[in-house]
From TrEMBL:
This is Pentatricopeptide repeat-containing protein At5g65560-like. The keyword Repeat applies. PPR repeats lie at residues 247-281, 282-316, 317-352, 353-387, 388-422, 423-457, 458-492, 493-527, 528-562, 563-597, 598-632, 633-667, 668-702, 703-737, 792-826, 827-861, 897-931. The gene is LOC107826068. NCBIfam families: PPR. It holds the Pfam family PPR_2.
Length: 949
């Protein structure tokens, strides 16, 4: 670690280097010391449009133009979140404090116990800043120390500042020195460290109370915690200007800060200063360099420093080992890691500590070696090394990634038993695990309990929940979380908006997805390739390929690089729109532009060709894949096999099947299911059962679709009992039958199990819910019970949805009554179907009743349901009921912008109900709801268009 010796900077150079920081600190140095600097940092999310005057809109063009003028003149207002402590309250507490501290026997004063609960660090800071001339400094210090010992009262850095001023003005320098050190150590954020630095530099002007070596080193250490390098350089320069000679602690602190950033070159400059000062590098010095080399991904250099330490007469400690072990783990050199770990005791007499084990457990989990991680976890406990919160969190995260959420939850319970408080990372791991399992309500329960454990959710917590709600097609709940983020003064990230855009697209709400795009830009976030890729895909799924083309073509101007996912989505969209020739043109274009297709691109194109009956071209494309450096996937073969089987070309299908196996692919459940469908369609039950036997031999478990196909096959053959046996197997395998599964079962029950070729079995699967009798549904429940798989809430939901789609409200209501008589809990999906069905039948009072029941049972109705009901009530002339319904909606916690988008813009304005829209918007604003500027703009544009019609 040789380093070129550089001359120390002159005082003038040091001052010049610090001038920028001094300017930044100037304001904080001159502020009243009771001012909380973090109150000044207004987040972007606190900027909101000024509340519009009432009445907001009228249907004349003049009112619209006036409103435009009003908004232009007041673009936004800033909402400050200063603590709401009234002057009267503050003044009263100040007087009580003054009376208390004027008494030498203040600890026995009767007002003390009454005063303590209402006293906050900011109020104490404000009181001490008022320069009470008759305040006894000894009593003041004693009182401050008394408060510091109270768990509910934690002095912050701004509380220490006025106390220091009092002590210095009374020349109590020895006590002030201890207080100064306590102040520096109380820094909990970067802002705190900036304040401390500015305040102490200001105090340093007092010749009688200059910063000493101890204070400088403590300040450097505090700044180092937050890796504030530039500030540290200034403090180091101040040390030299004050003629304070740095010691080994000073140099080690500077070296460690640079090494945290992987900046070994700068760290070596301070190593040379150690040598210049006649000092010797110690264990801390070398350990920092091990960290620095590992941070810059140069583990070999870190290993070299580690090896040199004994030669330099410097003993390696557990931190030295931990830094190197962590670096090796990051480089995935686990064999070397385990050798180093096992030799700790023999080579240096070091025992692994909790961090050593945690680093190893984390690395093993990330490498999917979770069984070894659990074994190591058991070993550490056996050796008396108690796991900490981080250890448990790493394991919980690993178990959640393995979908072992019950085991993860059990570990959380163990933590609680041991008195360990889970961190936000712990909860995030569990929330993510439950969301990925589709158990979003359980995840939400964890979210709600976080605060009771003094654990504040962060942006990632919200993103994981938003992802979970979007994945389960409950984007209205995901959007509601956006408002909760803003209330918490958490700025949504790009990931937040991308998840919401994706969720809206998946629910077919493309217009709302575009509104989110504009909201994203309004929040200072630039949409990226994932944002636009999601929009292109969403448009293509809805058949809006021309709009997708327009966005795709505009990306180059926006500086967004088109990627393979976007091309694939666009090619797939054109294939679905039966524009395969254009899809092939896009395919050629992407190759010409150096964007090389992947297996998914080939697959969507092969599928498009097959759907157009161009199997020969599809086969040629499949053959070209390896030549282009792309290995065909199982799906590549599956698409072609499925198409050949649809044409009953069994021989050709088996040829492709054998080719796939020869290429090293193991047939999956989708391919076997394709053969099952083909044989059942031909009435070849024995051949289908042979396929099922081959699946079992190959160890391929049926999935939901495979079970449904088997049920349909046995139903077609008139073997209803066999069909229900398969249903039982489906339940036992952990699958919930889908709506389509129940449609198949009901179809065959309605036909009495007769063969499809007979005249009595002419019911089309699409018409099942139009013709099914209620008695057939009861027969379904009976048969399910006989076969050991009694109906569940999911069963009733699937049936209710089917009936409601065909507007068969009477039968759906009977079904709901039957469900309740069985003691089963209702579901959100059932009530949503009932509400929507009532609205379609213009039975708005019944719809409102179902909606109220939903709310009573804790379900959050979808905004689509509210839109149907409110707009329907207005269409029906029931304005007061519509208004009352909207008013109830405002208490449900929906995202305010989404309410405006889906009810006011997509609902009322599309119906031309301008005055009503204005009235409801007034209600929205009076309720304290905030709307984004782009939502106001959209409303204005909609009103303007409606007025001009």
């Amino acid at each position: 670690m040789s380093a070129e010796v550089s001359p120390p900077l002159s005082a003038e150079q040091q001052n010049r280097r610090c001038v920028t920081l001094q300017n930044q600190l100037h304001e904080s140095q001159n502020l009243n010391i009771s001012l909380r600097l973090d109150w000044i940092d207004f987040p972007k999310t606190m900027i909101q449009w000024t509340a519009l005057p009432t009445p907001l809109f009228r249907s004349s063009g003049q009112s619209i133009s006036l409103l435009f003028s009003f908004i232009k003149s007041f673009p936004f207002s800033i909402t400050c979140s200063f603590p709401e402590e009234s002057q009267e309250t503050s003044s009263s507490i100040d007087q009580q404090l003054l009376n208390l501290l004027s008494n030498t026997n203040w600890q026995k004063h009767p007002s003390l116990k009454i005063l303590i609960p209402s006293l906050s660090p900011s109020l104490l800071s404000s009181f001490l800043s008022q320069n009470h001339s008759n305040l006894n400094p000894h009593i003041t210090l004693s009182f401050f120390n008394y408060l510091s010992r109270i768990p509910s009262f934690k002095p912050n850095i701004h509380s220490y500042a006025p106390l220091l001023r009092i002590l210095i003005s009374n020349k109590l320098f020895q006590v002030a020195e201890k207080t100064r050190l306590s102040m520096i150590k109380s820094c909990e954020t970067r802002d705190d460290a900036v304040f401390a630095m500015g305040f102490l530099r200001d105090m340093n002007k007092c010749d009688e109370f200059k910063l000493n070596l101890w204070a400088y080193n403590t300040l450097l250490m505090s700044l180092s915690r937050f890796v504030m390098i530039e500030e540290m350089k200034c403090v180091y320069g101040d040390m030299l200007n004050d003629m304070i000679r740095p010691d080994i602690y000073t140099f080690n602190t500077m070296i460690n800060a640079y090494c945290k950033l992987g900046n070994v070159v700068e760290a070596e400059l301070y190593l040379s200063k150690i040598l210049q000062a006649g000092l010797s590098p110690d264990t801390h010095t070398y350990t920092s360099f091990i960290l620095g080399h590992c941070r810059r991904k140069d583990v070999d250099s870190g290993f070299k420093v580690f090896s040199e330490m004994p030669k330099k007469g410097c003993r390696r400690n557990v931190v030295s080992y931990n830094n190197l072990i962590h670096g090796l783990c990051e480089a995935r050199r686990m064999d070397e890691v385990m050798r180093l770990f096992s030799g700790m005791g023999d080579d240096d007499g070091c025992c692994p500590n909790v961090r050593t084990y945690t680093i190893l457990i984390d690395a093993l989990c990330r490498l999917d070696r979770r069984a070894e991680a659990l074994s190591l976890f058991g070993e550490m406990k056996e050796k008396g090394c108690e796991p900490n919160v981080h250890t448990y969190t790493v394991l919980i995260d690993g178990l959640c990634k393995d979908s072992k959420i019950d085991e993860a939850r059990a570990l959380l319970d163990v933590m609680s038993e041991k008195g360990l408080v889970p961190s936000v990372v712990t909860y995030n791991a569990l929330i993510d695990g439950y969301c990925k399992k589709g158990l979003v309500d359980v995840a939400l329960a964890f979210f709600d309990t976080m605060e009771s454990n003094n654990c504040i959710p962060n942006v990632r917590t919200y993103n994981e929940l938003i992802s979970g709600f979007c994945r389960t097609k409950k984007v209205h709940k995901a959007m509601a979380l956006l408002d909760r983020m803003l209330e918490r003064k958490l700025s949504p990230s790009k990931v937040t908006f991308n998840l919401l855009v994706h969720g809206q697209c998946k629910e077919g709400e493309i217009d709302s997805a575009f509104r989110l795009l504009r909201l994203m830009e309004e929040n200072g976030l630039a949409p990226d390739d994932w944002t636009y890729g999601t929009l292109v895909d969403g448009l293509c799924e809805r058949g809006r390929v021309e709009e997708a083309n327009t966005i795709f073509s505009s990306l180059k101007e926006k500086g967004i690089k088109v990627n393979v996912a976007m091309y694939t989505a666009l090619i797939d969209g054109h294939c679905r729109a039966e524009k395969v020739d254009f899809a092939l043109t896009l395919f050629k274009k992407m190759i010409e532009e150096g964007c090389f297709p992947n297996a998914c691109t080939y697959n969507v194109l092969i599928n498009g060709l097959c759907k157009q009956g161009k199997q020969l071209e599809a086969a040629r494309l499949l053959k070209r894949m390896p030549e282009s450096g792309v290995k065909p996937t199982i799906e590549s073969y599956s698409i072609l096999i499925e198409q050949l089987l649809k044409e009953c070309a069994f021989d050709h299908a088996y040829k492709v099947f054998n080719l796939m196996v020869s290429m090293g692919h193991k047939p999956d459940v989708c391919i076997y299911t394709s053969f099952l469908v083909a044989y059942y369609n031909e009435g070849k039950l024995k051949e289908a059962e042979d396929v099922m036997a081959k699946m079992a031999e190959a160890g391929v478990r049926p999935d939901l679709m495979a079970y449904t196909v088997m049920i349909d096959g046995y139903g077609r053959a008139g073997l209803l009992n066999r069909a229900f046996d398969v249903l039982k197997c489906m339940f036992d395998a952990g699958y919930e039958p889908s709506h389509y599964t129940y449609s198949v079962l009901i179809k065959h029950l309605a036909q009495g199990g007769l063969d499809l070729k007979t005249e009595a079995s002419s019911i089309n699967i699409a018409d099942v819910w139009k013709v099914v009798k209620y008695e057939t549904l009861l027969k379904l429940f009976e048969k399910m019970g006989e076969h050991g798989c009694p109906p569940s809430t999911n069963t009733f939901s699937s049936l209710a949805i089917g009936l409601c789609r065909e507007r068969r409200l009477e039968e759906a209501s009977r079904l709901l009554d039957h469900m309740q008589s069985c003691g089963m809990p209702s579901s959100e999906d059932i009530y949503t179907s009932m509400v929507n069905c009532c609205c379609k039948l213009r039975m708005y009072e019944d719809a409102a009743r179902f909606l109220d029941t939903m709310l009573t049972q804790g379900f959050l109705p979808r905004l689509e349901s509210y839109k149907l009901l409110i707009c329907g009530l207005y269409d029906d002339g029931s304005n007061d009921k519509a208004k009352a319904t909207f008013f109830r909606l405002l208490d449900c916690g929906y995202n305010n912008d989404e309410v405006a988008w889906k009810l006011l813009i997509d609902g009322l304005l599309k119906r031309g109900l301008v005055d009503i829209c204005s009235e409801l918007l007034d209600m929205l604003e009076k309720s304290g709801s905030r709307l984004s500027s782009q939502t106001y703009t959209l409303l204005l544009e909609g009103l303007d268009r409606t007025d001009n019609k």
